[in-house]
Design brief:
Elements (H helix, E strand, L loop, with lengths): L36 H13 L3 E6 L2 H4 L13 E4 L4 H17 L9 E7 H7 L1 H7 L7 E7 L40 H8 L5 E5 L4 H14 L2 E7 L3 H4 L6 H10 L6 H5 L9 H16 L33
Parallel strand pairs: 1-2, 1-3, 3-4, 4-6, 5-6
The structure holds thiamine diphosphate, iron/sulfur cluster and magnesium ion (MG).
The site of thiamine diphosphate (TPP) has 17 residues, from helix 2, strand 3 and helix 4.
């Protein structure tokens, strides 16, 4: 979703891998797990944004594993913020920079402000602050939600982004109850796109498609204003698979029509307890997204005028309608 651009033209779209900048601004010296796609998102994010960038990060794996005492992988200025505060931190920093530049206290130049959050911090706890930030059209900041589909840092608890049926420490599969978690994943980019006309750009990405992700980051920063990017990040620890398959799972997730294909599910230990009927249910829900939703993956209903049966509207005159 894009409207007008406030771009300076300093971050052009990347044409292909050969065009990707060499400079690394998120380097070694962190302790994320082997195969951690969220760490790759951080690397791509700041590589795309370039050195004139401030990164703010809310509590979670990308804070804790990236700030071991006395070491940091961040080459750019970086600050930790409270778990639910990525939206507030982004807006406050962008507003602070604007004031300092207006008062002539710092050089008037384009400085990118990016605040990241996990799915727990962003889709659950901090959704209010992100929503508020997306209403402030006068400030340039990007909120990036890296979604590893659990509260990973505190040992894989269930979040609103955990997929239907997945095993987490809060939703173990038992002998009496095979599926503990039976809610469908909340669609955050869809929600935010729907109600925030001042937000100039909202996108979803995946580190397995690195150039595409970097271009989305650049587009957001070039368009300016409050923007939002949501990434899906395979997490070997939480999803229970060998780290060598992270990129492959990212590809599968996108290729299979937003994540759930049979093969995609069976590759992860967190779905190992699924019976055939669970896989079928999952597939039916995905098919429904593509065949019945107004916009697949985003708007879970059709417009009443197009198909009134979806809303179960009784078209008979009132006196002829059945009473319960
Ligand atoms: C207000 C608050 N509640 C709980 C915690 C404990 N805590 C620290 S990290 C974390 C998990 C965050 O999950 P997510 O945002 O998805 O990031 P991830 O760890 O998955 O990268 C929790 C619950 C905290 N730091 N602050
Ligand atoms: S638990 Fe998952 S998100 Fe956290 S560092 Fe490990 S792979 Fe990355
Ligand atoms: Mg998480």
């Amino acid at each position: 979703m894009a409207v007008e651009t406030h771009g300076t033209g300093t971050l052009p779209q990347i044409k292909g891998v050969k065009d990707v900048p060499y400079e690394e601004l998120f380097v070694s010296g962190h302790r994320t797990c082997q195969g951690c796609e969220s760490a790759l998102v951080m690397r791509h994010m700041v590589k795309a944004a370039g050195p004139r960038t401030i990164v703010l990060g809310s509590t979670g794996c990308m804070y804790v594993a990236n700030t071991t005492y006395y070491t940091t992988p961040w080459v750019v200025p970086w600050m930790h913020t409270q778990l639910g505060a990525s939206g507030s931190a982004a807006l406050g920093t962008a507003a602070g920079l604007k004031v300092l530049m207006r008062k002539g206290k710092i050089k008037n130049e384009k400085i990118n402000v990016i605040a990241f959050c996990g799915d727990g911090g962003g889709a659950d706890m901090g959704i209010g602050a992100i929503s508020a930030t997306l209403t402030h059209k006068d400030y340039n900041c990007l909120v990036l939600l890296y979604d590893n589909e659990s509260y990973a840092n505190t040992d894989i608890q269930l979040s609103s982004q955990t997929p239907y049926g997945a095993v987490t420490t809060f939703s173990p599969s038992g002998t009496k109850k095979r599926l503990m978690h039976t809610r469908w994943k909340k669609n955050v980019p869809g929600m935010l796109a729907a109600g925030h006309p001042e937000s100039r750009y909202i996108a979803a990405g995946c580190a397995a498609y690195a150039v595409d992700l970097m271009n989305k980051i650049r587009k957001a920063l070039e368009i300016g204003g409050p923007t939002f990017v949501h990434t899906l990040d395979p997490c070997p620890k939480g999803w229970d698979y060998h780290p060598q398959y992270s990129q492959e799972l990212g590809h599968l997730a996108v290729e299979c029509g937003i994540w759930p294909l049979y093969e995609y599910l069976k590759r992860q230990g967190r779905f190992a307890h699924f019976a055939e009927e669970d896989v079928e249910h999952f597939q039916t829900q995905v098919d429904k997204m593509w065949t019945e939703w107004l916009i697949p993956g985003v708007i879970p209903f059709t417009i009443a005028a197009k198909d009134q049966t979806i809303l179960k509207i009784d078209k008979k005159p009132l006196h002829e309608q059945k009473t319960a």
